[in-house]
Amino acid sequence: MTGPGVDQDPSLPAGATRPEWAPERAGTEFASFVSPGVVQLPVAAPPPAPVQAPGPEQLAEGILAGNRSMLARAITLVESNAPRHRAQADDLVRRILPHAGKSIRIGISGPPGVGKSTFIDAWGVRLVEQGRKVAVLAIDPSSSINRGSILGDKTRMENLVRYPEAFIRPSPSGGALGGVARKTRETILLVEAAGFDVVVVETVGVGQSETTVRSMTDLFLLLQLAGSGDDLQGIKKGIMEIADLIAITKADGDNRQRAGLARATLHSAVLGLQAFTPGWKPPVVTCSSVTGDGLDDIWQEIQNFRGHCETKGVFQSRRDGQIQDWVWDLAHETILGAFDRSDEVAEAWKQVRDGLNGGAMSAPEALARVVSAFRFPG
Hints:
Layout (H helix, E strand, L loop, with lengths): L55 H9 L3 H12 L3 H14 L7 E6 L6 H14 L4 E7 L12 H4 L9 E7 L11 H10 L4 E5 L16 E7 L19 E5 L6 H16 L12 E3 L8 H18 L1 H28 L1 H15 L5 H10 L6
Parallel strand pairs: 1-4, 1-5, 2-3, 2-4, 5-6, 6-7
């Protein structure tokens, strides 16, 4: 035993004792011993205080300083659907607005399989190597069932993502029409304030409906694919009429000749369309994301287009139009949001639903009753 007045057995570790059942005067040949217990457990450190999310002022400062983490947080804030974030997002946009607007905004669309992400990856690397800072806003379609999105565009841009001068942000469309996300306009301003001078908006890519991107970009680049088995698809009106530049992708290997034929076909089609930009006929070029052929030609055509628009005064007028369209988009979003959340509308809908389903009430009559119950808050 050990304790006051009891000598420590020199054959044992410091503070250890023999068990009670050990033979008396057991020597080193008896291996069992009892280690001393912990007299007092250490007091656990208090949990760290929760980290407070940066406010609009801190986010704006971080964006202007080129902090990519703050930029990503800011985009998450403006994309939030939570009503409590709306005022903060509006304050943030107000703070960075004077520092935005210095980029060239490029919308890119095309049918599925045309290679939009692969093209942006190769072309973006070329631009970065020429000293430019490139931001890519990749819009991914959202499920109509669970509203989820894969957000895999960044994975397909494996070369561009390695450059610190590039910023790639996948965003869900969230059910928004026109091939873009609900807050793409605000995101464009954020990346511009962060110093990116080329902003690329990659649309969902469903083909003919992606016209909203035209109202928020300076130039609309339409990608087309040669030898896809549907040459008429490439010359349909609608999306062709709003294109400022058309590029035939995958013009390499055995597809090079087909790309040349497709270029001639589309060039003839463009001549018969009314120009979306006064005095400008959209050039048709071929390119390859594998060999790099034609990528520099695309940037040169964009520079030519910008010079033409600035000379004609179209560039600034379009920027003014983008702001006006933004106001109306916000108006639609605000009014429809208030309508969806209205308790009066919900009650009126319950009252007309049975009559509507039974055929006793027409859809216009039901709409009139529901709308008459709506009162805009405030």
